[in-house]
Amino acid sequence: MAGPTIAFFPEGAYGPTNNCVGIGRVLRERGARVVFVVEESFAGTLEAQGFEEALMRLKPKPEVEEEPGQFWKDFIRETAPEFRKPTIEQLETLVLPIWQELVDGARYVDERLVEIFDELRPDAIVEDNVVGFPAVPASGRPWVRIVSCNPLELKDPALPPVFSGYASEDTAGWDEFRRRYRELQEPLQQEFSAFCVERGAPPLPDGELIHESPFLGLYLYPEEADYRRSRTLTPTWKRLDSCVREVSEPWEPPPGEGKLVYLSLGSLGSGDVELMRRLIGFLAETNHRVVVSKGPQAAEFELAPNMTGAEFLPQPAILPHVDLVVTHGGNNTVTESLHFGKPMVVLPLFWDQYDNAQRMEDLGLGIRLAPYEVEGDELRGAIDRLLGDAALGRRLERIAARLQARPGTVVAADAIQRAADAQGAVGPLVS
């Protein structure tokens, strides 16, 4: 018998897509037909990795050819000044416009998604997005929701509000942040919920822009860093401690003495050329070797003599070799750094990066610094303190050993397979 057909539908960014690639490879090796539903700007990128592609658009086609994820690169570059504001002020000037763009995209693409799912007839749909797409629950097929952002996305009154970057042990400001968030989001949420019902999907849960799957939910965060909840998640939720894809690209660390530091602000954060130049200048004055993920604006800045780097780097191949990571705090980089036992200096820019940065700070797994205010001595001092902390090094080694012994890609593939095998089942699918 032919294996199941699994449709992966990740957000149009490298983080969620790479997570799904790792899981998809495991399923493909088991005989599943794996199809990626991706934006046209990503056309060919998944095909090059051996997957089928079903193409769609989230907005009208532009007159010029697009790079993969170009819309979000442009959006972040244009809104970068907002990153300097306190997180509660970003709710109106950054977070709400992002939600609006995402909702507009979900409206625009819904008919195309219906066509794709009708044609593929998948045994399961795996969605890794932060807003709902009504075509997914309206398809009548088992579907899986992956949360590859910080797990504060799964809200709890005893935990800091998502996107706030507030400390877990200090509740000051929590209520004000939540009130402001709801005040701004509620009109959009109600309007989008009505659209979901109109398109054959259930109404959205109160205060949410995405449905909770009655079949299976997967969220990505190591147990050692996860939050203590006052409300237990429903039994359909399963934690993936890490989800690191295998890479075939060869990578060798640069020669030389000194520790090896990895600098990555992600494909979006690295688009801030002035910030990249500033950080490179600070790190040029260390005795360490530095590997720089230069990102989409690679041609706009030069590296120092103690550095090597490129526009795109195979991060999972690099992390085992480095001693420390300087990161924007994207969920992928944070969880992958823990998977390989690396301490972090976190410079959050937007979205859940503030939450990841504060969580690493709260747990003593890293140091949070303000990217636009940090000075060279402060950054270099943080790096040296972490590198010199032998107890932290041993703690991270234990975390890495546990995570690597139980790959999240396999855990996810097992759970998704159970959902696909139960195609047509009524009610939750719980292992």
Sequence-ordered SSE layout with sheet pairings:
Elements: E1 5-10, H1 14-29, E2 33-39, E3 52-56, H2 70-79, H3 87-120, E4 124-128, H4 135-138, E5 143-147, H5 174-198, E6 216-220, E7 237-240, E8 260-264, H6 266-269, H7 273-283, E9 289-293, E10 307-310, H8 315-318, E11 324-327, H9 331-339, E12 344-346, H10 353-363, E13 366-368, H11 376-387, H12 390-405, H13 408-421
Parallel strand pairs: 1-2, 1-4, 2-3, 4-5, 5-6, 6-7, 8-9, 8-11, 9-10, 11-12, 12-13
Features:
431 residues; alpha/beta; 6-stranded parallel beta sheet; 39% helix
Give your account of this protein's structure.
- With 431 residues, this protein is of the alpha/beta class.
- It is 39% helix and 14% strand.
- The chain contains 13 helices and 13 strands.
- The chain has a 7-stranded parallel sheet, with helices on both faces. A 6-stranded parallel sheet has the order 10-9-8-11-12-13, with helices on both faces.
- Strand 11, helix 9 and strand 12 (344-346) form a beta-alpha-beta unit.
- Helix 1 packs across helix 13 (408-421), helix 3 packs parallel to helix 5 and helix 7 crosses helix 11.
